[in-house]
UniProtKB/TrEMBL annotation:
Pfam families, A to Z: HSP20 (PF00011)
Domain SHSP: 27-137
Keyword Secreted: no
UniProtKB keywords: Stress response
Protein name: Molecular chaperone IbpA
Length: 150
């Protein structure tokens, strides 16, 4: 079931992104192909594993744009075959992953029928916490400010 957010759009201001995220979550829940896993390798490294049995690297494109990673597959049927049972999907697909800020794609490779996408969170130096020195008067030492005698 798909929910229509239109009535809420009319009565809210500044929640555009929230409704876009809710719509995306709902749309993603409805998509089921290709199956995938998202794994945390350590605090700042992640891996997306996508089951792509029967696809070659030439039939798959991976695009990173802003905070969205898009995976598309276009299966090229080379010849007409007669199947008695067809359980391996060869359909075209498009799956998108929303990446958090400062998460970058470091590489991708095919391994044992899986597309493995390596991700790394790299927080810029300017955004990392840093210790600030506090300057002040050293205890026991009094500093007099210039003054005129009355």
């Amino acid at each position: 079931m798909r929910y229509d957010w239109t009535p809420l759009w009319r009565s809210t201001i500044g929640f555009d992104r929230l409704f876009n995220v809710l719509d995306e979550v709902q749309r993603t829940a409805e998509e089921s192909f290709p199956p995938y896993n998202i794994e945390r390798l350590d605090e700042n490294r992640f891996q997306i594993s996508v089951a792509l049995a029967g696809y070659t690297p030439d039939e798959v494109t991976l695009t990173a744009e802003q905070n969205v990673l898009t995976l598309e597959g276009k299966k090229a049927e080379k010849e007409e075959k007669t199947f008695l049972h067809r359980g391996i999907s060869t359909r075209n697909f498009k799956r998108q992953f929303t990446l958090a800020d400062h998460v970058e794609v470091k590489g991708a490779r095919f391994e044992d029928g899986l597309l493995l996408v390596e991700l790394q969170r790299e927080i810029p130096e300017a955004m990392k916490p840093r210790r600030i020195a506090i300057n002040g008067i050293t205890p026991g030492k009094v500093t007099q400010i210039e003054s005129k005698a009355a």
